[in-house]
Amino acid sequence: MSKRITFSQGFSSVLLWSVLSAAFIGPGTVTTCSQAGAAYRLQLLWALTFSTIAAIILQETAARMTIASGKNLGQIIALKYGGNRGRNIKWALFIAVAFGCAAYQTGNLLGAISGALMFIPGLSREVLTLILAVGCAALLWINNFQVLSRALGITVAVMGIAFMYVAVQIPASIGEWAQNLVWPSVPDGSGLLIIGLIGTTIVPYNLFLGSSIGQNQSLSEMRWGIGIAVTIGGLISIAILAAGMLVTGTYSYEALATALNGKLGGMGVLLFGLGLFAAGFSSAITAPLAAAVTAQSMFSAEGNGRDWSAKSANFKLVWGAVLLVGTIFSIIGIRPIPAIILAQAINGVLLPAVTIALLFAANDKTLLGAAYANGFWSNFFTLFIVGVTCFLGLNNIWQALNKVGHLVADNAMEPIWVMAGVTLLVLVYLGLRVFGKRNIFTAQ
Q1: With 326 labelled, which of 12, 27, 160, 425 sits at a CA distance of 20 to 30 A?
Q2: CA dihedral defined by 76, 78, 82, 84, rounded to 10 degrees?
C-alpha cells in the first residue's frame, strides 16, 4: 500500500470526512464555546485543543478498525462481545449513545428554534418545535435528505467563516493565545463548561457514524482526511469561543448576535440566526439517525431474524424515540442555553465508557491483525483521553451532588483526591489489560 497520496486524493478525502466537523458544529458548539469565551475569555481554549486532538485519535482508531476488518464499529463491538455478558455490554453502550443522542436532540431543536426566532420574531415556540419535529420525521422517514443537509451545511460553514473573521479581531496578545491553547486552567465554576467543550467536540455517536465513511480508503487517505477535517472543525470552535469574548453583561444569543453586528457591518443578527437554525436543523436529523445506525450496526448480526434495515420498523422506532424525547423536552419550555450546555456535559460524561470499549476492540489482534491493532502510542494516548475525561466527568457529577446535598465545603480538596484516586485505579486496570504480558485480547 502506498504511503503517499496525490493532492486530489487528499482533497477528496478531506471533503469526505468533513461530515465529522459539520456534525459537531451545531448549536451545542456555538452555545458552549461562546459562553466559555464570554465567561472566561481564552482560559478554556486548552479544552478545545485537547478535545480536537482526542477526536482525531479516536476517529482514526475507529476508521482503522473498519478498514482492517471491513466492518463498522458497531459490528466490531457486536463480534467482540458475544454471549449473554456481551449482549449486556452492547445494550449498555447502545443506551449510553442513544441517551447522548436524545440529549443532543433537545439542544438541536432548541438551537434551531432560537435561530429562527432571530430573523422571524413573533412565532410560537411550541408551533415551531412541532413544525421542525415533523420536518425531521418526514426526512428521516423517506431517508433522502442529502441535498438539504448539504445546503444547511454550507450555511453553517458561512457562519463558521464569519466567526473566524471576528476572532482575528479580538484584542488578545499572541502570548495569551499561545498560553491558553496549551496550558490547562480550571477557573471557579468552569467544570460544566469544560466537560461541555469536550463533549461537543468528541461526539460519541460520530465514532459510529464515521467508522464506515472511509471503508474503501487507504490508511494514508483516511488519516489525511480525518486530520484536516477535524482540525478545521476545531479551529471554528476556537473562533466561536474567541468571539464570545465580545459579549458584555449577561450572556444570551441576542447579546452575542448584537456583538457580532459590530464586527460584521450589521449582518451579525441575520447571519447568526440563519447559521444557528441551519446547525440545529441539520443536527436534529443527524442525532436520531445516529442512534438508529448504532442500533443497526450492533444488533443486526445477532441472527434472531429481526430486520434492522433503514426501512424497518426497528430502525424507525429508534430514531423516532430519540426525536420524540427531544421534542417533548423542547416543547415544555426548557431554557435553551442551560439545556444545550447540559447536553454537551452529559455526552462528555458518557465519553469514557465509549472510549474504553473502543480501546478494547482496537487491541484485538485476532479481529484486526497485528498490523492494524493499536500500537504502544495509540494505547498511551487513548488511555490519557480516558483519564482526563473520567476525572472531569467524576468531578462534574460530584459538583452537581454537592450543590444539592451541601455535603462538604466547595473548596474542599478531599473529593478531588478521591476522584483522582478512582481515575488512577481505572487507568491502572486498563493499563494492565493493554500493556500486560498476557495477551488477553487474543485469548480464547
Answers
A1: 160
A2: 150
CATH number at residue 205: 1.20.1740.10
Residue entry with cell 486496570: 429
Question: What is the CA 240 to chain-centroid distance, rounded?
Answer: 16
Supply the range of the domain harboring residue 347: 13-435
Rounded Cα distance between 349 and 216, Å, is: 33
What is the percentage of the chain residues whose pLDDT exceeds 90? 12
> Of residues 16 and 237, which shows the higher confidence score?
237
pLDDT for residue 438 is more than 50: no
**Residue 1: inside a domain:** no
Question: Reduced to 3 states, what is the DSSP secondary structure of residue 289?
Answer: helix
Contact criterion met (CB below 8 Å) for 358 and 210: no
Domain membership flag for residue 2 = no
Contact 5, 136 (CB under 8 A): no
- Residue 406 is assigned to a structural domain of this protein: yes
- The answer to whether 288 and 136 are in contact (CB under 8 A) is yes
Quote the CA–CA distance of 111 and 15 in Å, as a whole number: 26
Interval 76-89: pLDDT, tens:
777 776 666 667 77
251 located within any domain? yes
Domain count, the chain: 1
Q: pLDDT by residue (tens digit) across 298-328? A: 777 665 667 788 788 888 999 999 999 889 9
